[in-house]
Amino acid sequence: MEDTVEHTIAAPRRNAGQLLDAAVGYAEERHWDVLPGAWLVEDASPFGTSGISGRGGPRCSCGDTACPAPGAHPSGPGWVGEASGSGPAVRRMWQRQPHASVLLPTGRTFDAIDVPEDAGCLALARMERMELPLGPVLGTPSRRMIFLVLPGAAVKVPDLLRRLGWAPSSLDLVVRGDGDWVPAPPTRLGTSGVVQWVRKPTALNRWLPDTEELISPLAYACGR
Question: Could you tell me the pTM of the whole model?
Fold first, then answer.
C-alpha cells in the first residue's frame, strides 16, 4: 500500500490553509463535488465537557456533546445543494469557514464501499496480486477503509453479494451512494486522528473501477 494508516498517535490539528488547498484540489484536479462540513472547536471551559476541572478536549461545532462523528459531518439538512465541483466556489466556501471539514458527497462521481480496516488490507493485498484496477482508497482513524468505485454500487451490491453466496446483512460492508458522503483528508475525526489516503488519487487511478471488479475480494475478506 502507498501510505500507512496511523492510529496510535493523534495527528495535529490541520490548519486552514491545508483544508482549503485540499478542498480546491479535489474540485479542480479530480472534478469531485466537495462539501464543507462541521469542524472541531477547542473547549475553553475550565471544566471541559465532562465537568472535571481542567481544559476540555475538542468538541464538534454542531454543539451536540454526543455527536457520533465530531468534526466530520454535514453542517445542516440542506447540504446536498451546497456541494460544488467548482474550484472558485469551493474556495469561497472555505474562505467563509476556514476550519470546515472536507467532505465528498457520494452517488455523484463515485460511490464508496466501506469495510473494516483488517478486511480492507486483506482485500487490497489480494486485489494487487490479481492486478485488478483500483481507485483511490481512504483510511480513517476509526479503523475503516473506504474504496471509491463508479456510481451505482449502492444498487448493485446487495444482488452481487447474494450471487456470491453472502447475505448482505451478514457482512460488515457498507455502501455509500446517493445522499451520503465520505470524509476526505486532511479532515480530523474527533480526537482519534485524521483521515488519510491509503491509495492516493493519481493520474493512474483517475478512472474508477466498477463494483463488480472489487466486490468478490471485499466480500471474501469481510466474511473471514
Answer: 0.87
